[in-house]
Amino acid sequence: MGRFLLGRITGAGIVLLLKSFVIFALIGLMPGDPLDLMMNANPETTPEQMAHLRAMYGVDLPITQRYWTWLVAALQGDFGYSRIQHRPVLDIIIPALGNTLILTGAAFVLSTTLAVTLGTIAALKRGTWIDRIINLFAFAGISVPSFWLGLLMIYLFAVRLGWLPAGGMPRPEQGYGGMLAHLAMPVMTLVIVETGGLARYARAAMIEVLSQDYIRTARAKGLTDRRMLVRHALRNALIPVLTLVALQLGGLFSGAALTEAMFAWRGMGRLILEAILGNDYNLALVCLMFVTATILIANICADIAYTWLDPRISLGKRRR
Amino acid sequence: MTEAAVSVWQLRWRRLARDRVALGALSVLVLLYVLCFSAAWIELWLDVTGVDTDLMSRFDPIDARHWLGSDEAGRDEFTRILRGGQISLSIGLFAALGSSFVGTVIGAMAGYFRGRVDMVLMRFTDFMLAMPALPVLIILAAIDLTKLGFSQDFVRSGAAGYWRIVLIVTLLGWTTVARLVRAATLSLVEREFVLAARAQGASSLRILWVHVLPNAVTPIIVATTLRMGGVILTESALSFLGVGIQPPSTSWGSMLTNAQELMASNPLLAVYPGAAILLAVIAINFVGDGLQSAFDPRADPH
């Protein structure tokens, strides 16, 4: 176990390092550089001053050298400043992270519960109209563009009916009611989009389990359906479902870029979009590194959860 | 046996033909493609245009000529949707095929040569898989190609914008197929018929092409189909954010960007492009699901 963990963490560290370089290089290829933007802000800058600034900021150095400078500073805990907000990057990321966790956490709990429930019902009522309706709902959720769904909701609930705020963050004095009102539409959007795939997965897992011999044995022993379902079927069907869920945990921190942007929710996803589209290179880079790190950690957790739930698998052996 | 021999593809086709949902979805999909790619003729027939602006007929209501009315620049909304569909649907097809091609090559190499090749390729796959997809796609879509040595004229052309999206979606989308093909190849190269072929001196390429890939083709087809839906959603998101298809070209996603601002006064303009995306993607997903059960010998006949 210890060795396995060490290996995985080292591997993840290497991947993270490689990825930071790739993202660093890609961001360097985006239009403009920090000094072009500075010059636009102050048209009176002379070419000599520009040259001086370029040398000072090291913009013309080769990519590897710039990356090295950035990495050394980052490893010492200095992640730099945001170009647009003029604040240390970490001061911006931490509140955004809190907001994202509220939104994605609520959506995650709701969609997982809904998906397991719907998947189990569909598996038990396989082939009936209930199964077909759940299937249609799942396919619609998988197939709908989230930003369009958000757009329709804003029109219906905010513009037309006026029931909910069109977006933005609740003010502190609005209390829990304000929080719920602001969360309602983005959470609904995320739940609709996320439930479908997971529900189909849960259905497939449940059908697989229900065809196993031990279920037949449990039935033959005369167990009631409910007892058989909870004690034998659900527990086993949840193993693959939970691993998939654990894999999605990393996504909780990266936020839901499009949904957050649609509803002006100040989370990580929206922050990343704004940083990239607004040429805030350093902020974008640190955010993306952070998101990648959480994905990698979540993958390791998923592997551990897998063995913990299913003793038949041992961590030492590589899974194919 | 008195019955005529039936090939495995005939069997698969029969199973698919019994699946009414998949068949219905397939018809919808074919109809969408045909409609979108006949946009020019439909424009002639209805005497409308989805391309040229006409400020005298902004926000026309629905009538016999303008089946879905006209938009904020007086362009016919219905044929504009069809023209947007040409871009969205063809990007879906090309990028899905591209992803499958790259994934098949990488997966087959990893599974066939194994050992170090496999390790390197699979680490690379994991590396790609852990990319935060949408942000990286946005960066790739926004990259200044002149910094890579392309000419200004080329970068600004519509074709460059189109193929750039196809390329970047392909680059980030091949991982699923690579894993599928690798798993299939790993188990197939152990089989006797591959050994026999190798004993007769068949080259690696021939073994892969003649003996391995035909036996791994069904999961590839299913994954490609499902991938098409994913590509259309991704392209629409990128275009919606303004980094995908650029005007004067149009796709369903970029139509939604304009419609968003007119939401309060003309909500229907925001409904049509999104509904088109939903219709296309849901049809693709149902077809993919139908293919999966038609190809799976263990699946129960519906």
Low-confidence stretches of chain A: none
The tally of strands of chain A reads 0
Total helix count of chain A?
13
Counting helices, strands and paired strands, the structural category of chain B is mainly alpha
Relative strand content of chain B: under 5%
CATH topological fold name of the largest domain in chain A: MetI-like fold
CA radius of gyration of chain A: 24 Å
Question: How many strand segments of chain B?
Answer: 0
Q: Order of helices and strands of chain B, N to C? A: HHHHHHHHHHHHHH
Overall shape of chain A? globular
Binned, the helix content of chain B reads over 70%
Question: Would you identify the regions of chain B where 5 or more consecutive residues have pLDDT less than 50?
Answer: none
Going by CATH, the architecture of the largest domain in chain A would be Orthogonal Bundle
Q: Report how far apart the termini of chain B are.
A: 27 Å
CATH class of chain B: Mainly Alpha
Report the structural category of chain A.
mainly alpha
Write the element-wise H/E pattern of chain A from the N-terminal end onward.
HHHHHHHHHHHHH
